Amino acid sequence: MGAPEDCWYCPDATGPEESLVSGKTNSGNFFEDFKLGQKIQHATPRTVTLGDVALYNGLFGSRFAVQSADTFAQRIGYPRSPIDDLLVFHMVFGKTVPDISLNAVANLGYADFRFLKAVYPGDTLNAASEVIGLKENSNGKTGIVYVRSRGFDQTGATVLDYARWVMVRKRDEKAPAPGEHVPELPKVVDPAQLGAACPSLDAKTYDTELAGSPHRFGNYAKGDKIDHVVGMTVEDAEHMIATRLYQNTARVHFDHFTESKGRFGGRLIYGGHAISLARALSFNGLGNAFHIAAINGGRHVAPLTAGLTVFAWSEVLDAADVPGRSDVGALRLRTVATKDKPCDDFPYKIGNEYDPAVILDLDYWVLMPR
Amino acid sequence: MGAPEDCWYCPDATGPEESLVSGKTNSGNFFEDFKLGQKIQHATPRTVTLGDVALYNGLFGSRFAVQSADTFAQRIGYPRSPIDDLLVFHMVFGKTVPDISLNAVANLGYADFRFLKAVYPGDTLNAASEVIGLKENSNGKTGIVYVRSRGFDQTGATVLDYARWVMVRKRDEKAPAPGEHVPELPKVVDPAQLGAACPSLDAKTYDTELAGSPHRFGNYAKGDKIDHVVGMTVEDAEHMIATRLYQNTARVHFDHFTESKGRFGGRLIYGGHAISLARALSFNGLGNAFHIAAINGGRHVAPLTAGLTVFAWSEVLDAADVPGRSDVGALRLRTVATKDKPCDDFPYKIGNEYDPAVILDLDYWVLMPR
Amino acid sequence: MGAPEDCWYCPDATGPEESLVSGKTNSGNFFEDFKLGQKIQHATPRTVTLGDVALYNGLFGSRFAVQSADTFAQRIGYPRSPIDDLLVFHMVFGKTVPDISLNAVANLGYADFRFLKAVYPGDTLNAASEVIGLKENSNGKTGIVYVRSRGFDQTGATVLDYARWVMVRKRDEKAPAPGEHVPELPKVVDPAQLGAACPSLDAKTYDTELAGSPHRFGNYAKGDKIDHVVGMTVEDAEHMIATRLYQNTARVHFDHFTESKGRFGGRLIYGGHAISLARALSFNGLGNAFHIAAINGGRHVAPLTAGLTVFAWSEVLDAADVPGRSDVGALRLRTVATKDKPCDDFPYKIGNEYDPAVILDLDYWVLMPR
Questions:
Q1: What does DSSP say about strands A232-233 and A225-227: parallel, antiparallel, or unpaired?
Q2: Inter-axis angle of helices B236-245 and B85-96, to 10 degrees?
Q3: Which stretches of chain C drop beneath a pLDDT of 70?
Q4: Is residue A181 part of a domain?
Q5: Could you give the percent of chain C with pLDDT greater than 90?
Q6: Residue range A36-64: average pLDDT?
Q7: Structural domains in chain B (count)
Q8: pLDDT higher than 70, residue A279
Q9: Judging by DSSP bridges, how do beta strands C142-152 and C158-169 pair with one another?
Q10: Chain B residues 89-108 within an 8 A CB cutoff of chain A
């Protein structure tokens, strides 16, 4: 998922310390505050509504029919349109920020990231994390915290489960390391684990004309590359509205006064914004990839700031049966997003280095009707 | 509706061809792909929700009481507040873009545009078009496609029906013309065709104080001119959020990287955005014009880009009875929108040419309580 | 609340007169149009929806758990999450603008501002005002209008009640003053009047871990100062979307063409936007201050324009019992917001003058669980 020195996500160094001034504000956890096995209940439960869905649609323009129309969703077997998978992710992720990554130097990676239950308007999301690994860096100033985070609905059922690791500063460089354990995490989610958030569908009733693409699971093969063609420029108002909607509190996204003096000359766009943009753009070529079932890994290769235009392309890394399911198949995709560079020649790496235009390298499983 | 050479809507010439690179992305139809009588089911059904309504209100600030308050709507005879007519239009129009106008050079006009059934939150919209005319241009490079497009709700009832013509490029200049037929279309919708989307009202219960204007149908006369006074500046974030909400895929609205090198130096704002702005501004002077019943014709006279301020004025072109209706009367209006020019002197044409500040010339019927 | 000469809120002088050109547009009331005891029913009732809530959340990022999650609200005794108090205020205030302050030179102050009933999604808001005071200024060009404004829900119950005074221009300087009466208004709302909009709660079921702050009423004491740490930059698209959502028609917020030539070089941000930003920022340190019960007074010390970053800090001015309530206590807070100045040293006044970075000085009561 990238070595620490590769990471661009570096909140200004003076920020979090200032929050120590007041005894009642949240200054977040530093590396030495975490303990192996520690369980953290995150704050601010959130009822997800049709209002959130509309705003998400306005910000990304997604066109997947299952999420767009109750009638389409019901016809194939959903009770109604589910909440977009990534909106669920952003809301769960947002809750973890104040406890896990307020003092982060870098967001290093994700693994074993599975959507486990569909979320519908009116459901209330909650999140909790468990510390599953800790490793102090050799410089003694920072350490890597591995957490398993879970999102729950109001019934207590898990809707999302993922491992994430993040580099966090120490408050006191002389504090002893809180332990050392590096967890083993799968490189790819097993196809047998996909589909828990997707009801059993009647694939014959899936109308590809209405969905906007004639291509079903069987039309894709390993190695296929698809340029998603259209570019989408990001404005500061847009990414701030999105990130506030998720109640994500990372100040680097919101404070131009401070960030304009920082390394990137302005507000950094939440990495998840690029994921949602790439997903929405991917409709053009992957119009029936109606559900993200799992994320195998992802890397925010370079920062994104407002005024830049995001393009994307995808490669089919694998096509797999989902055991026990004849209605859907799973495509493993790599979706690459760039800034200010169209993707008709599939920009990725130049030698061992990423093309400087690449901002996102995402490896994930989608479901498609057969 | 304006000769082709008058039109400003010119997507960059290289855009759509690029989309041919991938076999799975939608490259849209070119002139020679259309056939007279061809029927096209458009993709992506869309459930319209209270979330969409809120976002539309935030973007345009409309204040018509029927659409603003369920209590007001119910008192006069609606089951609840209907969806704003123009929001219905934008959503239906957006669906037609990938099939009809992805390779358009110019959007030439509308005619016989009628709202036929009120749409309410929770309804799901669908769209289909029929090719009703074709005419190749003498240069052999482009042709005019005439379509009749219809929006439907989940019961299959038609909510909107309109003719539109658009200039579309040929993929292959040597391809033979796909036929030639220019349909006859009415210059003005007959008042007998108005009101299908408006329930029978109890006009006495229409409270003009709550509605914000004392002027009923009888207070307006042919020739009245009204300056709507207030100006509204458009930001890029705003028009992109709106246009994505409608799932309109025309890339000229979203891609600053490409458009900044193009003819207008930036993203073009969707023409419908100016219509919605002008409609919202027209509340000041037309506060009881609660329903757009039909559009006789409209012209996007000049492009609009972000940072400019839209003003508007209206003229009453006619005042007509709606046969069989004693509750409402119909005003035929011309609403003119300008950019960066207040409308206290009603700017329109200078000789035969439009004032260079004019961006929109819209001819339509509204209903007002008697 | 500040002498007239201190006020920055000065719409361009030529604006409202222009609106007199048309007989059907609203030119608002001038000072001599008001009469002591006059009652004004404001226009445009408004059904508040979950869509409005989502957009408000996207614009301000509030994290108070009661308003965020139905489950949290229900557990402590609400039927569901109530609408954010300030969203109710902005919607009621917006309705008063066309009648009270379209010709205002300055918004001078608020007093005796009480939330009286919780508002829920689906409720419809209405507003009316009564003129409770009038005083012509010695220059004969302007006068101060004191109104008591009330917001109602669809049952006719008062949800919000406040006094406000505003300096309004005369249309005709020779017109006689319409009377003179300066009402007496309380400097602080009596704690016995707080809590009408807050149901009786089961404070034991209030989960401070889920709410995001361990500090209950008893943890705060008079004199406590809290830096809310995080800064939030405002974009033009954001404040315009917010202000249109409230159907506030003050043109200074929307018209860059005119305002760019004016005193501030651009659109002025609605003063209420700064209040909502400061409230959302105050979560960091006041996470359990779940309800604004009353506003004792407030002053928009300096204008705010887009691109600036808002910071905030608060001081506990008092901690009071609410008579008859053992579930909640009331904190009287002063929240100060600044532009482009972090608040770790609590910027406020330099001698008798406000620090030039201060934009808002708000004195209000919040409720906290005991």
A1: unpaired
A2: 80
A3: 1-22
A4: no
A5: 88
A6: 98
A7: 2
A8: yes
A9: antiparallel
A10: 98
